[in-house]
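Hi all, posting the design record for the shared folder.

TITLE: backbone redesign
STEP: 1 of 1
STRUCTURE INPUT:
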């Protein structure tokens, strides 16, 4: 029997292009080649779909040279309609078939990939894919909408204010009062970005302008969030099997000792001042409560594919900070570490996500 063909799709137009490429390195290295035939497809920073090298080392995460998808002149031709699953590639010598594909694993982070856009493309041509669908991806990517959805579902979220550049310029005093109501310090972040790109900690009011400018460089809407004093706890969520409730991993904890917060360098470049502890030191009742809230948040946003749920824990309450519908799979990422600590290997985790896509079929 032929092995299912899986497209590993990575790169993209967002500011998280290199993180997606590094994630691809981890996935290409760990995916079960006995089970799956792998076709690596990269998306350049300009949005061109190219046939990439099946070489994990090419996309290793290196602080001196972040990996990226470079235009090599090839062009991926997606199926012409939902009547076929044939993938083709055009190149200087002509065009050839890559065969029928069975599923796509879109390990894209940020806009134009994690936000429902690529998911919509795959649905239009009838291809099964791993992860959340169009709506879950779009809602999860939009922090302001996600917070409103979670709050409506009874999930405790960090208090926030959402402001556009026009809002800030038109009635600055009004927004200063609203932000002051959150207390200082606050975190300012782009509404639709991840990996801590564009995030600033603001401790005094005169730092607001620069922080908002940094956020507006990534998105037209910025979130100003209350700085909750507590532990940073994360966990992974997968759908339940055969109608069972969602499965939630053990907790991991981000212990910040020498930095202002868990920023891009700490997340991906192994910068000092941050330790990732997994499993986190939680009592049984605390872990059960975190898992209950994580499952509720996952279901509120759509309950498909996978998610990493990020919390602040004050010692008395868990507040959901974000729900990431396509978390990183780099060697030091928390999502795979939490599932490994829960008894699942990295390769098994990837197989489960792909098998879930194959079982669901086209959406």
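Okay, here is what came back for every position:
SEQUENCE:
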């Amino acid at each position: 029997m032929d092995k299912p063909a899986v497209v590993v799709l990575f790169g993209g137009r967002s500011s998280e292009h290199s993180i997606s490429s590094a994630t691809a390195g981890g996935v290409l290295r760990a995916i079960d080649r006995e089970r799956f035939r792998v076709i690596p497809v990269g998306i350049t920073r300009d949005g061109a779909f190219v046939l990439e090298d099946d070489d994990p080392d090419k996309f290793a995460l290196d602080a001196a040279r972040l990996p990226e998808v470079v235009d090599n002149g090839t062009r991926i031709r997606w199926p012409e309609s939902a009547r076929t699953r044939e993938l083709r590639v055009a190149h200087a010598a002509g065009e050839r078939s890559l065969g029928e594909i069975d599923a796509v694993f879109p390990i894209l982070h940020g806009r134009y990939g994690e936000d429902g856009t690529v998911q919509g493309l795959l649905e239009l041509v009838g291809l099964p894919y791993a992860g959340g669908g169009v709506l879950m991806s779009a809602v999860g990517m939009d922090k302001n909408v996600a917070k409103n959805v979670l709050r409506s579902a009874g999930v405790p979220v960090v208090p926030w204010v959402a402001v556009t550049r026009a809002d800030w310029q038109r009635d600055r005093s009004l927004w200063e009062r609203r932000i002051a109501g959150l207390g200082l310090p606050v975190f300012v972040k782009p509404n639709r970005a991840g990996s801590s790109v564009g995030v600033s900690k603001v401790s005094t009011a005169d730092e607001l302008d620069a922080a908002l400018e940094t956020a507006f460089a990534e998105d037209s809407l910025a979130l100003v969030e209350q700085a909750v004093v507590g532990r940073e706890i994360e966990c992974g969520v997968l759908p339940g099997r055969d109608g069972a409730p969602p499965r939630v991993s053990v907790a991991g904890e981000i212990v910040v000792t020498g930095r202002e917060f868990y920023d891009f360098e700490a997340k991906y470049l192994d910068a000092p001042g941050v330790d990732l502890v997994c499993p986190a030191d939680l009592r049984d009742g605390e872990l059960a409560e975190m898992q209950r809230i994580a499952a509720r948040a996952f279901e509120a946003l759509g309950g498909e594919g996978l998610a990493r749920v990020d919390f602040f824990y004050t010692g008395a309450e868990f507040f959901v900070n974000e729900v990431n519908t396509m978390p990183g799979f780099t060697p030091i990422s928390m999502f795979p570490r939490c599932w490994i600590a829960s008894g699942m290997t990295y390769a098994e985790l990837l197989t489960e996500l792909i098998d879930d896509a194959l079982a669901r079929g086209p959406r």
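COMMENT: The radius of gyration is 20 Å.
Let me know if anyone wants the other runs.
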